[in-house]
Amino acid sequence: MGAVRTAVRRRRAVPWLVLGLWIAVLAIASPFASKLADVQRDRAVDYLPASADSTQVAKIQDRLPGGETTQMVVVYHRDGGLTAADKATAAEQIDRIASEHELAAEPEGIPSQDGTTLMYPVASNEPGTDEKARDELVHDVRDVAKGDDGLSVEVGGEGALATDSAEVFNSLDGPLLYTTAAVVALLLILIYRSPFLWLVPLAVAGMADYLSMGVAYGLHQGFGTSISGQSSGIMTILVFGAGTDYALLLISRYREELRRIERPYDAMVTALRGCGPAVLASSGTVAAGLLCLLAADLNSSRGMGPLGTVGVLCALAAMLTLLPAILVLLGRRVFWPLVPRYGSTPKARRSLFTAMGSSAGRRPATVLVGGAVLLGALALGALNLPGSLKQQDTFTSKPDAIAAMETLARAYPERSTQPITVITPEDRADETLASIRGTRGVDSAQEGRTGDGWTEISVLATAPPQSAGETATIEALRDRLDGSYVGGPSAEQIDLKDTNARDTTIVVPIVLLSVLLILIALLRSLVAPLILVGAVVAVWGAALGIGGLVFGPLFGFEGTDPGLGLLSFVFLVALGVDYGIFLMHRMREESLKGAEPASAALTALRTTGGVIASAGLVLAATFAVLTSMPMVPLVELGFVIAVGVLLDTFLVRTYLVTSASVALRRKVWWPGALSREPERPVPPREPERVTAAAH
After folding, report:
1. Going edge to edge, which strands form the sheet with 420-425?
2. 485, β-bridge pairs
3. CB of 573 closer than 8 Å to CB of 536
4. Which of 409, 519, 620, 676 could, after both became Cys, cross-link 529 (CB 3.0–4.6 A)?
5. In this structure, are residues 43 and 127 in contact, taking their beta carbons and an 8 Å threshold?
């Protein structure tokens, strides 16, 4: 009797102990989580690798007298042509800016040939590398430079663009979190049909997100992990998306066990034993896939790997510890009005996935070939993807810096309005300057600051910014100037594109190999892992193809982010294999019980199809939240991943993987023990009948 009472007290104490530990952990993480925004950096050079020319230029500029230069262009424009009063207003405002701030040089107005525009390049070393000081300087200039009565005034340039980008990224945190939470809440209400149950996984996901912010800050402080607005946003998406998926699997198994087991604590322990290994394996696969991004040379991609892994692991820890504790404490009533009573049986319903699995099982080869042809046809749409995204096309709505850039492009078609920066050794400055001026495509070159053994040279190309002509000029300068570095905004975009291309060729094989090895170890087969990996690669191609069909014609995007291919591949492979593990793991369980291959495949689909579909909808919806953000790279990434997850959930997992398993039968588990036909027992030999005549 005493042992029973002790066991009961332990059951009651464990959930409270887990809850108390989480409260303590969140209290410790709180001071660090609140500082994550302070270490977030979104300049182009923060995304670039240390070896890039443009990164070296930025670092050396920091060491020159005055430190980093904030470059702006104040643009005065009137459609009918600037008047004398307009020019006087411009001169007065520029003088005021010069008197209030320490500028690197006295601004000189450059009129356009058609007389409609006057631009004043404004450069200051006052903010240095302090981003807040830079933003204050840009806002001060904008407060002074104002137009009226048809005179438009816009402040652009590299510094103004950096300020506008930072403001967009800083504004994403709140809307991204609230929108993601709202979408997940709506889907959970529809899935659970309960006024209370949806709150539990949503609240737990929120706590996991807060913990991930604290851990991410610790990674930055301890290991220098780069934090960008994109990576922190993706981390939040993964916490809510992957965390809710794990919650759906656990709660589904817990509800099932509550009908068989009387005490909620015991039912939860059984549920964790049943689905825990699959959840651990799937989260481990996702984490391994994301960590492959550490092989990337691009700072932003390399930083996203650890941050994404932190998000997945924090979600996993919360859903396997905090969620069970809260559910046990709340008891069966949390499922109201559909309470799973002890000893009850769920209502028999015709499962959609039973019907879908049956159709795949009747003609597996036909379904497999048809699905493969469909995915291949969709993948052809990738040929229609627009070219590389330019700076002025990065935003879905134009900030002031982009409007200024477009005005300059129209008013000064004969020259570039965005300088190329060359950093050369001080003792070779004259030689380098002469070589620059003799380079084809260069309009002008002017020597700037000198210090720490280096000289800065500002170069203007004859071609517009980020055009093919300017790109050719930058590449010519790099080929010609040995020992010098060529940087600036346009050079940064070239380095981003080249580095992404290099990272793709390195990271993609590593991701495929690591995921394949994990699947082989988990499923103890070679064929099944190859099917899963091949399926998710086909999904990635089809999702990119759909993007190619809608980005330009439907969304009006002028370009594609250079990192879209790599990042979407890593996420779709890691997350797609995640669902494949749930299906194949259950299929293997059924096979170990002695079920025939076709029966095991259809049973696995029938039992896991609903949960996988719900999880896929939630994950796709969370990534789809990115399509509401004002940044084209985020919209493109969110769209491709959301479409890929839906294709994976409702086409690949339901039809293609199931039909392949039915068609291959036991060969799907080759060369494991399950691939061999079980030995049939030899029937006992009947004893010979001895007749009386024989005797």
Report:
1. 442-451, 454-461, 420-425, 485-487
2. 423
3. yes
4. 519
5. no
